[in-house]
Amino acid sequence: MAFLAGSEKCTRCRIPDSCPFAGIPGLVSQVRPLLESRYYGNECAIFRQNQKAAGVFIIQSGWVALSAYRSGGKRVPIGLRGPGSVLGLPESIDSSVYLATAETGDETELEFLSGPDLLMILEQSGPLRTQLLKLVARQTREIINDLFDVAGRIPADQRLSRTLLELASTSGHQSPDDPELRLRITVQDLSAQIGCSRQWTSTLLTELERKGVVRRRDGWIILRRDVGPTAKRKYSRRATGASL
Questions:
Q1: Alpha-carbon separation of residue 107 from 45, 135, 164, 187 (angstroms)
Q2: DSSP string, 187-225
Q3: How distant, in Å, are the alpha carbons of 9, 26, 32, 114, 194 from that of 3?
Q4: Greatest pairwise CA separation for the chain in angstroms
Q5: pLDDT tens track of the chain, all 244 residues?
Q6: 121 near 59, Cβ under 8 Å?
Q7: Which CATH entry fits the domain spanning 27-150: 2.60.120.620, 1.10.10.10, 2.60.120.10, 3.40.640.10?
Q8: I need a surface site. Which of 52, 114, 128, 181 has the fewest CB within 10 A?
Q9: Is the CATH number of domain 155-235 1.10.10.10?
């Protein structure tokens, strides 16, 4: 977790530009002792649907798949979340149950703040209450945007390209001298995110390979780092008219 705008920041912070608690003077000294770092391997459940909310999770690295399960056990994907995302915020505020299941798609590092500690801090910080209300509104709009996109507002190939670029830019594995970004994600997870069958998603990936945009190797999807900025502009929500 980081705090900007001239205030302190937590050590080891990996999301200095996207921390939802940034820039609120005096909070860092209050929150730092309450944070718990947690590490998860691939395909681990952080919390499950209908589980009593214990607190909020802030993603520092890696990525997480959110999904809901119908009564018959069918999995309904909600979306993928990367560094800077806050999970379980509304449920922790009203002390209810988690509305979805959150599972890691790669090795993931999170910071945990318990529900009681969150409520204590909210009682003492008016600016934090306002900031978290804006965060809930933004996350709700992102979910609505994702649903509209899957419903057909954006073609499947563009949804796939945008998903790969967004995940690679926030959660891709890279080294300073490496011209490539490596992303560990399955075709099944990609197909669930973009609302297509596994077979069609694989076909779209093959087309991206033919164009030289991505490569697949040993369970990794590899993107050239130099395609990022141009492709991000092309497939951003603003460019595709996907903002509400």
A1: 12, 25, 17, 18
A2: HHHHHHHHT--HHHHHHHHHHHHHTTSEEEETTEEEEEG
A3: 4, 10, 11, 19, 34
A4: 56
A5: 333 333 445 556 666 566 666 566 556 667 778 889 999 999 999 999 999 999 999 898 999 999 998 888 788 888 888 888 889 999 999 999 999 999 999 899 999 999 999 898 888 877 777 877 887 888 788 778 777 766 667 888 888 888 888 888 777 777 666 667 888 888 888 888 888 888 999 999 999 989 888 888 887 888 876 654 444 444 444 333 333 2
A6: no
A7: 2.60.120.10
A8: 52
A9: yes
Grouping H, G, I as helix, E, B as strand and the rest as coil, residue 87 is strand
Phi, psi of 119 (to 5 degrees): -65, -35
Amino acid identity of 226? D
Q: Where are the domains of the chain?
A: 27-150, 155-235
pTM to 2 decimal places: 0.72
Q: Between helices 228-235 and 156-171, what is the axis angle to 10°?
A: 130
Q: Give phi and psi for 38, each to the nearest 5.
A: -130, 140
Residue 69, both tokens: 């399960």
Q: Taking the CA atoms of the chain, what radius of gyration do you get in angstroms?
A: 18
